[in-house]
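Working notes for the structural subgroup meeting. M.R. asked for a predicted model of this chain before we commit to crystallization trials. I am recording the input and output together here so anyone reviewing the notebook later can reproduce the run.

Input as submitted:
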Amino acid sequence: MTADDDTLLEPEQLRIGLYVSIDLPWFKHPFAFSRFKIRNQEQLDTLRELGVPVRYVPSRSDCRPLPREDDIEPETLDLPGPSSEEIAAAAAVQARVDQVKALSERVHKVEQRMQKAAGAVRQINKVIRASPREAFELTDDLVYELVNTLADDGHTHVHAIHRTLGEDIYFHSLNVAVLSMLLGQALGLDKRDLRHIGFGALLHDVGLCEVPDQVLGKQSALNKIEQVVYESHCKAGVKIARRLGLRPQALDIIAHHHERVDGSGYPDGLSAGEMSLPVQIVALVNAYDNLCNPRHGKTPMTPYEALSFLFAKQREQFGEQLVQQLVRCLGVYPPGTLVQLTDERIGLVVSVNGERPLQPVVLVYDPDVPREQAHLLDLDVEPELRVTKGLRPQNVPRAALEYLDPRSHVTFFFERIDASVPAGPA
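Returned structure, recorded in token form:
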């Protein structure tokens, strides 16, 4: 804020149309942000009742403040107790604090569940050769938990959980399983089909253990010979999965997760009529996650860019209706996307409600709030705010990028929220 903008106002000088900055931490007032334009009488009344220090920004205001009232000589009076308006304002502040705290606790619990699931995938890959039976049981336990969580009543919220580099294969397998099962559920598949998808998706890349490290870990494009070696992981995976006793439906997913409905995939060049719906689902989700978390030195796309690319460039390869359904599941601005809000704030989409994908939970950039206290904003209970557009990292100021910390590698996970429980105060 420039010196020109640094104008302190008395409560009686406030009016609709002023862009103001409240000199208090966000958790000590009932507004979504500490800086905003006063848009209605309710906001104006609340600011006046709070009596908080307010500065205004002339360059972003629609009008000038009201003139300051004449000073009034103080009188010796008995001070009254808090008014009903003051009590209501204090209650609104506390409600917002409670809402953000509950939201943060939810996100933390999802992160814990994701880490536990990733640990299970890590253990599966560790024992799969020496102890196929143990690997099957571990996979069965994880798939059982995921399927039953999806079967719970309520709305599905998809979360983006940012992580550091390392153990990419485990997180990739988990991403593909989680998103494939979500897409399968949205398409009306039953528990049995979701179970097959879970097994096939979690183990779809198990054959990569047969691919030489110099091919698997190469940080540049593969040559033709290396590409053939890499593609062999599909059939190698089926051989390994058979030792676990997987059903034919899951084996089909492992064998054909790189096929395309237009016949351009591998290893068998199948077309739509030759691919089951579970295979088509996992093939699409696998491609999506490979765009977000690529191998061989490719530049990762943001989740928003990856969805846009699939729809604009590859919908014929995967089927337009299936790609559209993935967009509906993840939202136009999927978890992990940098966005701009209607009040011009920049944020990072943390989770998306499958029932209301245009009203995500957003981590908001606010330089006046410490990063460890960053504000999580649920747009489902903030009717005046919405996302106006997705942003590419290169178009976001460095300070906002460092604050929001959008990682190049993202893991997806979900939770189910009881639809009968209100999300929070409006």
